[in-house]
Write a structure and sequence with these properties.
Strand order of the largest sheet: 1-2-5
Shape: globular
CATH class of the largest domain: Mainly Alpha
CATH topology of the largest domain: hpI Integrase, Chain A
Helix content: 40-55%
Structural class: mainly alpha
Number of helices: 9
Radius of gyration: 23 Å
Number of strands: 5
Number of domains: 2
Length: 194
Amino acid sequence: MMAYGGLRLGEALSVRLRNIDFNRMTLHVAESYKTHRFKKPKFGKTRLADLPDYLVQKLSAYVKHLQKEGLRSGQGSQVDRLFVDPLENGSWPYSQRKMQGLMRKVSKQAGLERRHPHDLRHTYATILLMAHQSPGYVQKQLGHSSISITMDIYCHWIPGEGRKGLENALLGNRSAQKVVPNWHILAYKQKRSQ
């Protein structure tokens, strides 16, 4: 959910089945979870996030698995929260601390530097921006309160991305001719003639 949906850890842990629209491939990010407490997402705003087809398919299969497990254990096929910790009393999601520990363990087993769950969200945003998705769209997906937050955090992760197409953007079809425009001269002449 964090790597393919751009969610914060607390947002991912609090996902409810009713918040996923499998047909429209969206998730209504309505709450966040931390230490046996549910609250609104960061900045107090809910949002609608697009989900990639791959994630929607995985979530659909996971929900069917949860329904089968519920029937097998005699609890019924009703599914509410997707990431309930079976070791907790009640229907509490996994704790953020457990998820952080799991990420540390997986990173170590994979021979990687220590990674944190939030790194998955950073990876998601960076991949979108490197694929030339609109920064405004990335802001919406992440739930940032302003586009400047998105760009302040992620812009430097894309070195040299602005160079691609620079000449074409400034010179149009003349870029192949290596023409140097004299805009400063034209502007100066227009100013003097006024």
